[in-house]
Design a protein that fits this description.
The protein is an alpha/beta fold and 494 residues long. It is built from 16 helices and 15 strands. The longest helix is centred in the first third of the chain and has 19 residues, at 42-60. The structure holds adenosine monophosphate and zinc ion. Zinc ion is lined by residues 32, 225, 250, 254.
């Protein structure tokens, strides 16, 4: 049996599959994190479920990893431009809250969504605003080494100084120039040149502002990732992830400034992995456009977060996925079937690594070649650039396959779930009962139910138990599940 396949990942740098060999004992992994000025939408969360899949694959292969996810709370200008207002400051003005409040609130929402999706917590979540001094030092070095020029609007990185500029995007400097945004920046030498420091416009005082050798202002968007990743993972590290939109601009610029800063002729980061986008119909799901669905919209509509996770993992991370009601319905139904089949097998053994899976299946099922074969299939699938759809297929086979012993099934289910992170050891069928969404109700229906609930509360206050019971029966007929809590009655639809 050939179990223990070499982990191979698709490297955006060169656009090819490569064996993954970490440079040190602990692999360093940096994932570009959220800009915390609005709710993370389902597409954003795809980027972090993808990074989590990578983490689980590394753990499975026995490779310790240190994971950093940054929180962008300053520096990201509206529309990813070089000049103009910060996304956070615009949001603060819109919501009439302080920038700090906005950042703290949306950071919390992001972390809550991470937990709901069973995403392993990162080792560090550095905030950009806490690293501005280091960013200034970084830019000073680039300035001293002649990679920059100054304009009234700030300090710019001179991309003509980098003969390899744009390699990640698979574009020559000319190609990058054509693709570069059309924003006009007075005095900018090349359209690809980007801001390291964005100076305050005269008369327009920023809310978040720092003093620098280039005037009061704020760092450019790309700077934070270079500075914080080096600060927390060392100058060179192994893996860098993000959504595919980052491959053409943000990561190109991170690489240019980092390699100029290091100046050692080595690639800054060796493996760049990019997750494809989640589409909503034919539309790109964009946070700045607003209105894109978020995880809470799904849970309010009666879907379990793990149904969303299963839906995502049913596609390969490098394939575009289209979010539809039919697809999330199907995922919830599949998850319900999986849980129903897994339940009689509980408790599941605890499995995190391939070695553990082999040990358990070997000890418990020496004569279970079918289980061994499925473990091999799972290992081959994860090793071939994180092929989660194949892991799901192997999991389903394990639960259907009559040749497997219960212990063999347990080992395979636990192994698949260590990689998929669906929480199969603890999910309850009741968690997955599909409740009708409150949004399915008309305003009149909602009003009628609210009235009945209030009447019942009144009846109970008056100790008119018969009437209270009668109203409950009426609500029951309408499909309303009523629960009395210390804060009063709450209800949902069956
Ligand atoms: P942001 O908070 O806008 O900086 O984005 C956070 C992460 O979500 C980045 O890695 C983006 O590339 C990624 N992202 C944004 N929109 C989508 C989408 N529709 N599908 C998948 N990933 C996305
Ligand atoms: Zn980044």
């Amino acid at each position: 049996m050939s179990t223990n396949h070499e982990l191979r990942l698709y490297n955006s740098l060169g656009r090819r599959m490569e064996d993954f060999v970490p440079a040190a004992e602990v692999a360093g992994l940096y994932s570009c994190g959220p800009t915390v000025y609005a709710y993370p939408h389902l597409g954003n969360m795809r980027a972090y479920v993808f990074a989590d899949t990578l983490r689980r694959a590394l753990r499975w292969k026995g490779i310790p990893v240190r994971h950093v996810v940054n929180i962008t709370d300053v520096g990201h200008a509206v529309a990813d431009t070089e000049t103009g207002e910060d996304k956070l400051e615009v949001a603060a003005a819109r919501e009439r809250r302080s920038v700090l409040d906005i950042a703290a609130y949306y950071t919390d929402v992001f972390l809550v969504d991470n937990a709901a999706l069973n995403i392993l917590p990162a080792d560090e979540y550095p905030r950009a605003s806490a690293y501005v001094e280091q960013m200034i030092e970084f830019a000073k070095k680039l300035d001293k080494d002649g990679f920059t020029y100054q304009l009234p609007s700030g300090l710019y990185f001179d991309t003509s100084r980098d003969p390899h500029y744009g390699e990640l995007a698979l574009m020559s400097a000319e190609g990058q120039l054509e693709a570069a945004r059309l924003e006009h920046v007075e005095g900018r030498r090349r359209k690809t040149d980007f801001a390291l420091w964005r100076a305050e416009e005269p008369g327009k005082r920023r809310v978040l502002r720092w003093d620098s050798p280039w005037g009061w202002g704020a760092p450019g968007w790309h700077l934070e990732c270079s500075v914080m990743s080096m600060a927390l993972l060392g100058q060179h590290f192994d893996l860098h992830t993000g959504g595919v939109d980052h491959r053409e601009l943000h990561h190109v610029n991170e690489i240019a400034q980092s390699q100029a800063f290091l100046g050692d002729g080595r690639p800054w980061v060796r493996y760049w992995l990019h997750g494809e986008f989640l589409q909503l119909g034919a539309e790109k799901m964009a946070k700045s456009a607003g209105g894109a669905p978020r995880l809470a919209d799904l849970t309010e509509a009666g879907y379990h977060p793990m149904a969303y996770r299963l839906f995502l993992l049913g596609g390969h991370y490098r394939s575009q996925l289209d979010f539809t009601t039919a697809a999330i319905d199907a995922a919830q139904a599949t998850l319900r079937r999986l849980v129903a089949r897994v339940q009689p097998l509980r408790p599941l053994p605890s499995v995190e690594t391939l070695a553990e899976a082999l040990l358990i299946s070997g000890a418990a099922t020496q004569h279970d070649p079918a289980a061994q074969r499925l473990l091999d299939t799972i290992d081959a699938a994860v090793a071939a650039d994180l092929s989660t759809p194949k892991i799901i297929a192997a999991l389903q086979d394990a639960l259907r396959e009559p040749a497997l012993t219960p212990d063999g099934q347990r080992a395979v289910v636990a192994a698949a779930d260590a990689l998929l992170g669906l929480g199969l050891a603890t999910l309850e069928p009741a968690d997955l009962e599909h409740h009708r969404a409150l949004t399915d109700l008309s305003a009149a229906e909602k009003h009628a139910i609210t009235e009945l609930v209030a009447d019942r509360t009144q009846a109970r206050k008056e100790r008119d138990w018969a009437r209270a019971d009668q109203i409950r029966a009426q609500l029951d007929e309408l499909g309303v599940i009523l629960t009395d809590t210390p804060e009063g009655p709450v209800w949902q639809l069956r």
